[in-house]
Write a structure and sequence with these properties.
By secondary structure, the chain is α/β, with parallel strands linked by helices. It has 2 domains: 255 residues, Rossmann fold (3-Layer(aba) Sandwich), CATH 3.40.50; 83 residues, Arc Repressor Mutant, subunit A. It has a 9-stranded mixed β-sheet with strand order 5-4-8-10-3-11-12-13-14, sandwiched between helices. Strands 7-6-9 form a 3-stranded mixed β-sheet. A hairpin with a 2-residue loop joins strand 13 and strand 14.
Length: 382
């Protein structure tokens, strides 16, 4: 495969795997130690060290949505209103050629107001190639990783990616989708990679006709749903009368459903709109109307004004504890506001110019901060 010079030994290449440490421990070991907080790669949606799944019918936009996620994480921006932890991304695309990825990336960059060099991701396009990562013995269900799996792991580790996309299961999985043991072994191997990179692996899948009609978004064994730690389903909104194809005005609408999240409720149902070549949150029919959003915006501007006037340096990045989103949620009047709602308000206020983002600090350690338009930080150039 890679010979004796392989810098990343993969002990599972042979059919017979060495017995791993048993790993018993006692709750007494935790005495006096606070439980660690969840380490989200995508807030409330995707944890480090786990495997997630996005299912959806062909052509509905799964690959585009995942390319948006890889981009958002690589530049430290929110994805559909959800905060991401800045990290390198790796996209293993089996159904989209290089030109299509290029076209999508230009529209995604326009959406995030960034340039190609800003996007710290690595893409692999393998249209028309053999892309099986794991093969199985039909009699014993034993799994054997393919040389392509070794190549993928080496590329991910060399690049330092922490968010890995495999698009799709239909191409990468060499087993029988209804055989529970095979499914679990495949997902377990992906989770080994997620733990090793201290990140997450997300796979895309096509639902069966039954899965689409029932609304579950599943295909094959329920082990797919049970083995991943989080699962989302991208679908189109159903007509109120339940009949016929989507009407023309609804062709660009989608619903992103959280079907499973072991560590929390996630985002529930997120209405999306395909707009200018990307997906954005669709707040047109939100129960939070424009008056509620305006009120939230005004209260957040006033809070930021108080913080800056009192000498606080308020960071712009969502992922920092000192970031405006997290600081705001420590105040009683904002505790019932979701992180996504405050992120959305911050983006609206930046777009309108009511608050501005400034970069301060030494050349070796510069950070971005927020302030109201009319105020200045000490030492800031006028």
């Amino acid at each position: 495969m890679n010979g004796g010079g392989d810098p990343y030994p993969f002990p599972n290449r042979t059919v017979r795997r060495a017995v791993e440490p048993f790993g018993a421990f006692s709750p007494a070991d935790w005495y006096g130690k606070p439980a660690p907080a969840y380490d989200w790669l995508v807030d409330g949606c995707l944890l480090r060290g786990t495997v997630g799944m996005l299912s959806g019918d062909g052509g509905i936009g799964k690959s585009l949505l995942m390319q948006q996620l890889l981009t958002a994480a690589s530049i430290g921006r929110n994805w559909l209103g959800l905060a991401t932890a800045p990290c390198k991304g790796f996209g293993f695309f089996c159904e989209d050629d290089k030109d299509e990825l290029h076209r999508r990336q230009e529209r995604i960059n326009e959406h995030y107001d960034c340039e190609h060099p800003d996007v710290d991701t690595l893409y692999v396009s393998r249209v028309g190639m053999e892309n099986v990562l794991m093969e199985f013995d039909r009699r014993t269900d034993r799994m054997t990783p393919t040389p392509l799996w070794d190549q993928l792991q080496t590329a991910v580790l060399d690049f330092g990616a922490q968010l890995v996309l495999i698009d799709t299961i239909a191409d990468a999985y060499g087993g029988n989708e209804i055989v529970r043991n095979q499914v679990r072994r495949f997902i377990t191997e992906l989770r080994r990679l997620a733990v090793r990179i201290q990140g997450a692996v997300i796979v895309t899948a096509h639902p069966s006709l039954t899965g689409m009609s029932s609304g579950t978004g599943l295909s094959g064994s329920t082990a797919w749903h049970n083995s991943v730690r989080s699962r989302m389903y991208l679908t189109k909104p159903r007509k109120a009368d339940g009949g016929g194809d989507d009407e023309e005005e609804g062709m660009n609408e989608r619903i992103l459903k959280t079907m499973k999240n072991n560590q929390g409720p996630g985002a529930g149902k997120v209405p999306l709109l395909w707009q200018d070549g990307v997906f954005v949150r669709d707040d047109r029919n939100s129960s939070s109307n424009w008056i509620d959003r305006l009120d939230l915006d005004l209260r957040l501007v006033e809070l930021l004004r108080q913080l800056v006037t009192n000498g606080s340096m308020v960071q712009a990045a969502y992922e920092y504890r000192g970031g405006f989103v997290n600081v705001a949620r420590t105040y009683p009047e904002f505790r019932l506001c979701s992180q996504a709602a405050i992120i959305g308000a911050q983006e609206r206020l930046l777009a309108s110019g009511k608050i501005v983002r400034v970069e301060l600090g030494s050349p070796a350690k510069r950070r971005k901060y927020l302030r109201p338009e009319e105020l200045r930080y000490p030492g800031e150039e006028s």
